[in-house]
Amino acid sequence: MIEVTLEQVQDWIPCEIDNEYLDYTIRGVSIDSRIINEQNLFIPFKGEHVDGHKFVPQALKDGAGAAFYQKGVPLDNNDVDGPIIWVEDTLVALQQLAKAYLDFVNPKVIAVTGSNGKTTTKDMIESVLKPQFKVKKTQGNYNNEIGLPLTILELDIDTEISILEMGMSGFHEIESLSLLATPDIAIITNIGESHMQDLGSREGIAQAKSEIAFGLESGGLFIYDGDEPLLVPHVKTLTDCEQISIGKGNDNKLTCQIKEVKDSGITFEINGSESYELPILGEHNMKKCEHSLLQLVSI
């Protein structure tokens, strides 16, 4: 997890910190004042009903190493005993800190989105890469504008590969996550009907999911469900990356077909030659496994 001095924080993000605290160290991040570990950076948010800033004094008393504090929010200095990091917006500052720390650690970044199967795909990729690399993945559903930065700030300094799940409920959300993470590899597992009420149609969902390529590194790898025609117009706009389509159709770069089904799982082939056994059932899991196997070749 992040472990840096406040002087380093000041170098990384726009903020103000009293000079007397610049040699203090933060270790890890918390957004819940009830769960503060020693030297954590506490980050409060102004919610619709509760303003987390009111918990800053107690967080510092409970061992937090420092706290973000949004300019313009009243603060009684008599109640505060510890470093305050003054920022314009605590959420933006969290994201800026995460981006700076990701650049500092500099792992390969694999970003995963899709209507279904994000978590299974993420877990399969980890299982394939973990024997050879120091890998960290998104935990639970930490896949939004708060969860993704928190996931990044949990990376160890020697992390070689970061697998980041990206979720959304509307347009431009995955775009902002992708621009923050600047992935080396971006994956769209499929297009379903989740969030239809927010995006209007499956076409809208495909558009929103395709935003994962917005932050893709130049020359990066874009992997997508080639059996989904709604992704085609978005794929055609990508010119500065390698593209690999995965699916059952013969026009995909990597085709996969189930050859045998048993109670214990399935056997499937890739491009009619390489054969793999998977100890779970389902055509959808075959595609997820193909995504994960491709990572081993690509990294």
UniProtKB/TrEMBL annotation:
Domain Mur ligase central residues, every copy: 112-286
UniProt cross-references to Pfam families, sorted A to Z: Mur_ligase (PF01225), Mur_ligase_M (PF08245)
Keyword Lipid biosynthesis: no
Gene Ontology MF, one: ATP binding
Keywords: ATP-binding, Ligase, Nucleotide-binding
Enzyme type, top EC level: ligase
EC numbers on record: 6.3.2.10
Record domain Mur ligase N-terminal catalytic: where: 25-101
PANTHER family per UniProt: UDP-N-ACETYLMURAMOYL-TRIPEPTIDE--D-ALANYL-D-ALANINE LIGASE
The name this protein goes by in its record: UDP-N-acetylmuramyl pentapeptide synthase
Lineage: Bacteria, Bacillati, Bacillota, Bacilli, Bacillales
